[in-house]
Amino acid sequence: MGLSFYEKKKKSKKLWILLLALVIAALGTTCWMFKVKKEEREQAARKKQEERTVRITIPEGYTAELAAKKFEQNDVCKAEDFLKAADDLDSYSYEWLKSVPEKAQVSYKLQGFLFPDTYEVYKHTDAKKIVAMMLDNFNTKWEQLSKENKTGLTPYEIVTLASVVEREAKVDAEYAKISGVIYNRLDKKMKLQIDATVLYPLTKGKYNKKRTLYKDLEVDSPYNTYKNQGLPEGPICNPGINALKAAVSPQKHSYLYYHTDKTGKGTHIFSETFSQHEESLKNQAK
Fold first, then answer.
1. Mean pLDDT for the chain?
2. Which residues are marked as site: Important for catalytic activity (predicted)?
């Protein structure tokens, strides 16, 4: 006995359902494989990108000389090319760069404006692009700071003063206080007599000398604030945001002197007079 029309139709329907299920399963497998392939491609692209880029942190207080070495060590650009770009004013048109004196006897004209930060950059990049990136970062910070600057100092003088604060201050709470000391001494026409301004020319920007000797204070350099009145000829490092804020908004007080204390934390003892300063040093030496 053959199948009835109804039974044939029912069997055909089952076959179609089975076929549809197989098609759906095949599509699902294809989609899954496509998704896996896509993820593999994306992972490969990310890996390739990671191999081509590097994250570099330029700490606050780094000089152009130290930054150049770090970029070279990470295969970003040659130190020589970076330093050449850091001495080139003509390639950039920021308004604040007009405050850099044309005849400034400085190591690198863009020193102080190479903002310290963490940068993700391509390996084997044109040094000018790296410098431009750092200047652009500084420009972003300066847009706000310039509105707060009521000191009467030019942007270059602010950055120079901030660079000194950066090398002197070791704890956040003292940035504005040390800045206030510098302003007080400038107001009284006193020489700043700050060791960092001697160490910068003495170590050629490397700061790899820990102690300043009396003979070092005689170094013949426009940066030396033991021999020259006022601020150093130019920035002695690239200051971070805390030092820049301190230079724009110094703490108001009557201190003229300071020296490191015994805590080993980099904090200082501040004095209003030289006799108080000497007494403090004698007490600490006991």
1. 89
2. 168
Separation CA 231–CA 219 (nearest Å)? 16
How many other C-beta atoms are found inside a 10 Å radius of the C-beta of residue 116?
A: 22
Contacts of 274 (CB under 8 A, 6+ apart): 256, 257
User: 233 CB contacts (<8 Å, ≥6 apart)?
Assistant: 104, 105, 106, 222, 223
The residue written with tokens 């003063």 in the block is: 161
pLDDT at 49 over 50: no
**CA torsion sign, 211 to 114 to 75 to 90?**
negative
3-state secondary structure of 104: coil
Average pLDDT over residues 208-226: 93
Contact 124, 133 (CB under 8 A): no
Specify whether the CB–CB gap between 85 and 111 falls below 8 A: no
The model's pLDDT over 62-72, given as tens digits with 9 standing for 90+, comes to 999 999 999 99
